[in-house]
Here is the input.
Amino acid sequence: LISFGSSEKFRFDNYALYKILPENGEQIKILEDKMSDLRYDFWSVPSAALDYVSVMSSPQHKNELEEFLHHHQIKYNIKINNIQEHLDKETVRTYRSNSSVSMEWDSYYKLADINTWLDDLVATYKGIASIIVGGRSYEGRQIRGIKISHGSGRRAIYVEGTLHGVEWITTTTVCYIINELLTSDDTDTKSAARDFDWYIFPVANPDGYVFSHEQNRMWRKNRRPTTGGHIGVDLNRNWNNNWLVIGASTDPANNRYAGLGPFSEPESRSLSTYIKSIGDKIELFLTFHSFGQLLMVPFGNSTAPYANYHDAINIGRRAMGALSVRYGTQYFTGNIAEAIYLASGGETDWVKERIGVPLVYCYELRDKGDKGFLLPEDQILPNNQEVMDSVVELIHQAKRFGYMGGSAVSTAIYTSSLLMFSLLSLCIFL
Ligand SMILES: [Zn+2]
Here is the structure.
């Protein structure tokens, strides 16, 4: 698809981002078939639930794409004319250790800076924050995260970003959540931090994220050489649950290549081992992707509701209501198969089915195809704020529905059974 020298940065001169607007099932089908044409990079997948498809084209193939769309009478807009021009304006800030200035929310950061920042937080919040390692990448990097805990025995919330290297907004979102949990003065945020053990990984695909910064901004997969000289597997198609059943590719050149087998990749394999090790504690599982403004619940290969499906949807919708308050940003809540498209071998399906976590959500953050993966820096803070609002509301609603370690109802039952037990004991002793 894209070839480049070993150290020079790939340039996207005159590459364009198209927002294609299919109007019926037939046009969606035509675009689905077009996905196998690897000259075009589908940033999003054709779906009946979404009214657009984002596609990046090189300058050499723009004309052919436009002719193809005209031929099938499919409408489109060009959202970015020259992607390189956009990349030249993108700012990556440097974080300086132990400065009075914390991480800022108007630019993106490299992996090394995020790791330094995590170290500083752990030094500052001794006894509350600690470094955790969720696994190891193909190139030997740690999947590094932070645990925030105000005491033992609490139920856990798992948060993860950047399973796909290109999705930089998810990295900063997860960093912002960490920052809020440790520094916020807001009452609800503080109690969310205190009441649960938080296991948080800003970058689940460190090799892909580093490669996206250093060599190819649009890199999605991990960096393990596969077959035919190709590199990388889609780490969200490689989990051992309905692997390669649907919505994944057997072509190693494809961006949604599922790998040679379930958990063939060190990142998904080691991370799954880590998740399993804390699995019985996890009450709420949140993974952040971009883009599309969606909140999705499992499963990716079926629209059939599972036991607490309706709870998950209702809790999610209310949280997305809270998300919209600050800036009016609208998210659609649904299951993966209906909200986006059929896909299997994904992380959240595995977490739901194999680990049995009660509430599992996958966010697709801003936007809806205007800038896609290249979300402008002035949207970082608003995005992060509204997402944090929604996370606090998710916890609040989950409690109301009886999750997160007990509702008023279950506490009442617990208390009354304790009372019964005491009375019985009393009877025995008397
Ligand atoms: Zn993703």
